[in-house]
Amino acid sequence: MKQYQILVIGGDGIGTEVTTWGKKILEEIGNLYQIHFTFDTALLGHAAIEATGTPLPEETLTKARQANAILFGAIGHPMYDNDPSLKVRPEQGLLGLRKALGLYTNIRPIKLFDELLNASSIKPEILKGADILFFRELTGDVYFGEKARRDDGNTAYDMMIYSKYEVERIAHKAFQAAQKRRKILHSVDKANVLESSRLWRETVNEVAKQYPDVQLHHQFIDSAAMLLIKSPRMFDVVLTGNLFGDILTDEASQIAGSMGMLASASIGDSTGFYEPIHGSAPDIAGKGIANPLASILSVALLLEHSLDMKAQGQSIVEAVDRTLKQGYRTIDIADENTPKSHILGTDAMGAKVTEILKQVVSDLW
Ligand code: NAD
User: Model's pTM, two decimal places?
Assistant: First the structure.
């Protein structure tokens, strides 16, 4: 039997709480489908700074390179958020790991489960049927361009920078995904103002010639942000740079009802990296109420993208769907119609999905 090595990095705050359930779901998939997973753990972010003085210990990097896939939670701690002058910071660990692994494509499916139509602040008739796949570039843009202060610290800049090959490689991935969906691709930029966006647009146009079956639209970031809320169903695949994608995908989380529902895959040159889009949520950390579904859905992406096991991943999505259909909710996605008996904490929700996953797989056989 083939053996797969999975590195589990819980990170900080609710990161560790929800990742416990991502891992348990993967163990259950191993039992149900006779797949041999072995697990190791590593530190990142604030937890790593506390233990080793650095947010990305060398040991974490070595383990990450050796694994078949990485299941990650979140990093972040209020002490850094409240003191921007601190030089050693948790996010350096996450950005450094993404860069070191060459994870240049972040894939974020925005899937609205029908049962959660009322959990969103957007009207159900606008939302129903929305299904968007974001491709956000992850290793360029203002996050990695030159940054500095001058004039005694009174002026600061962050350079927005992209090279043609960086746009090409993610554009190909987005076009290929669009070919397997509704064949519509919106590329987001600010080409009326930014030179890096003009290069982005030129390059996407060139790549598009190889995918004549895909309808390409260019959308400015400002109007894309507006249309995402006004007419979310018009979007199929959305291709964006790092900064615009960061903002748009958080906005799009409202389509799915809660940050606690959205998973993401980061892929590139080596080990794939799978995580919820939310952060360490210090406001609810330690209370046992964090929604574990984004971490559980991250496992579905891990199976599909790193292990070529789409069917097994789909059984997890089906288990989450059935759990919601049976009325179970964590507090962030509950509404006034949810009976108290069906509002579950992190562990009870994770256990419920695990139990329903067994039924889903036994129904398939
Ligand atoms: P956040 O995503 O942690 O929380 C935003 C809001 O959503 C909070 O009210 C939180 O309670 C809620 N929420 C998030 N995930 C939830 C879940 N699974 N279940 C229920 N509710 C959930 O964002 P923030 O508050 O802006 O940032 C907190 C910390 O996380 C900061 O230190 C930030 O730097 C870090 N952060 C890390 C990542 C990452 O690791 N990828 C991403 C974003 C933010």
Answer: 0.90
| Residue pLDDT, tens place only, 254-275 | 888 778 899 999 999 789 999 9
Helix axes 293-305, 14-33, angle to 10 degrees: 50
Residues 114, 222, 335, 363: which is the catalytic one? 222
**Do 185 and 214 touch, CB atoms closer than 8 A?**
yes
Å from CA of 279 to ligand 1 middle? 3
Structural domains of the chain, with CATH: 1-106+270-365 (3.40.718.10)
Going from the Cα of 280 to the center of ligand 1, the distance in angstroms, rounded, reads 5
Look up residue 32 and give its two tokens: 């149900």
Give me the catalytic one of 80, 104, 143, 274: 143
pLDDT of residue 230: 95
Using the structure block, give the residue that is written with the tokens 């990161």. Answer: 15
Please state, in angstroms and rounded to a whole number, the distance separating the CA atoms of residues 114 and 317.
13
Rounded to whole angstroms, what are the CA distances from 167 to 60, 114, 161, 184, 289?
29, 34, 11, 18, 39
Model confidence pLDDT, tens digit, residues 89-141: 999 999 899 889 999 999 999 988 888 888 788 898 999 899 999 999 998 99
Question: How many angstroms separate the CA atoms of 254 and 252, rounded?
Answer: 5
Q: How many CA atoms lie within 13 A of 89 on its CB side?
A: 13
Q: In ligand 1, which atom is closest to the CA atom of 281?
A: 3
